[in-house]
Amino acid sequence: MVVKVIELVGSSKNNWTEAVDNAVHEAAKTIHYIVGVEVTNFTANINEGEIVEYRANVKLAFKVK
């Protein structure tokens, strides 16, 4: 088996978990055989002292057929 890994950034207005879920969900629309995800970094955009966007850098692994 051969696995390819790509890096993505997911975002959410609600939380970091949803940012990861959004990255995986969007990738799954065009990438098949996803086997794993590694979260490498969490960041956020802040406006007037409030978090307005959560971001998660992820590495997504999928089988190459």
From TrEMBL:
<dbReference type="InterPro" id="IPR009923">
    <property type="entry name" value="Dodecin"/>
</dbReference>
<dbReference type="Pfam" id="PF07311">
    <property type="entry name" value="Dodecin"/>
</dbReference>
<protein>
    <submittedName>
        <fullName>Dodecin family protein</fullName>
    </submittedName>
</protein>
<dbReference type="InterPro" id="IPR036694">
    <property type="entry name" value="Dodecin-like_sf"/>
</dbReference>
<dbReference type="InterPro" id="IPR025543">
    <property type="entry name" value="Dodecin-like"/>
</dbReference>
